[in-house]
């Protein structure tokens, strides 16, 4: 049979009663006691050690610890774990035991009342050993909570004040975590972004963080309150993972906290977006690397972009083409959620916001929740650039043509938006319904030079 350890048979889901320290007596050897209960099976681990299991729904092991050389310190350790009400409390409580040969830590209890035997022989003949009941492998877990896990934007990191709370299971924090020492520094260095922008998390947050931001709140909880980082500036979202070093944990093992958390870029980088060939009306054609959309006469058709956003600021442009001369919503540009029907113009539902040329009319129109209003802007037709800017966190969207923002809007100042009720996960979108000619629009999400200068902070 293959050589395995007890850990290979245990689920690693139990939580020990006591995790402040580990019972580690290096002079012991571990042997099995096969045949103690009917139905037990013998199991070879390291070639000389025998362990036993009981045939039930849960793997249960018992081991005998035999001393090769009795030391007073070993006796003191055992008596401490047996007597201390916070540790073993006799046979009542479980604690962590370091296996001397397989390298694993296990959750165990004393299996029998050894106290009398220890007292009887300690200092006289010594004792030969004792038995442990192995409950589970001691899997150290770390969970990450705090306000940083609730939609953290780039501006939140700049402002500071977000909390990162790290909680240990089956271990305790080293008593010196939070002090100005190498252990706290190692903990800070383990909170790392998968990205590596020059003014991102690793450079501006992790590398600037000090011990003053780290507090050992309890034996199992550390709280980090992030300081303000004015130079933090990212062009793409970041994913942060907290890897806790072994020196910071009482059981001396590394733990990766779950879940990770993200920081959302304020100026959304849409440059990888295109129109989505898998999320469009059949009658709408795509070309030019899926950046140009074409719609023929007399059909309603729409398309969403390949990407979306639920926060931050965004900017994109379209250039109009085609031969539409109808007095209808020939071209409609804006944003919508994933449930908005593509055979209805952008703005047909409450989660769609659209800006239309108004074909043969005199003024452009805007539309939300199927409520059509004058946009406070001249109509637009073939051969112009339409610009779209939005701030999802503020719920605002602006439209403009030919280098100006309509209705005296100012995205940077946040004033005079077309709408102030944006919400949800939104996709850039285009739709068309017209009676004559052909509609053509080409979108620029940032992969090409802009026709107009984006408002500051709305594009990377």
Overall helicity: under 10%
Largest sheet at a glance?
8 strands, mixed
CATH superfamily membership of the largest domain, which one?
Answer: SPRY domain
Coarse structural class: mainly beta
Structural features:
31 strands; Immunoglobulin-like; 8-stranded mixed sheet; 460 residues; Jelly Rolls; 7-stranded antiparallel sheet; 35% strand; elongated; mainly beta; 3 domains; 8% helix
What does this structure look like?
With about 450 residues, the chain is mainly β. The chain folds into three domains: about 5-135, no CATH class; about 140-265, Immunoglobulin-like (Sandwich); about 275-445, Jelly Rolls (Sandwich), CATH 2.60.120. About 10% of the residues lie in helices and about 35% in strands. It has five helices and 31 strands. The strands form five sheets. Strands 1, 2, 3, 4, 5, 6, 7 and 8 form an eight-stranded mixed beta sheet that branches. A hairpin with a 6-residue loop joins β6 and β7 (about 105-110). The longest helix is centred in the first third of the chain and has 12 residues, at about 70-85. It is elongated, with a radius of gyration of 33 Å. The two termini are about 60 Å apart.
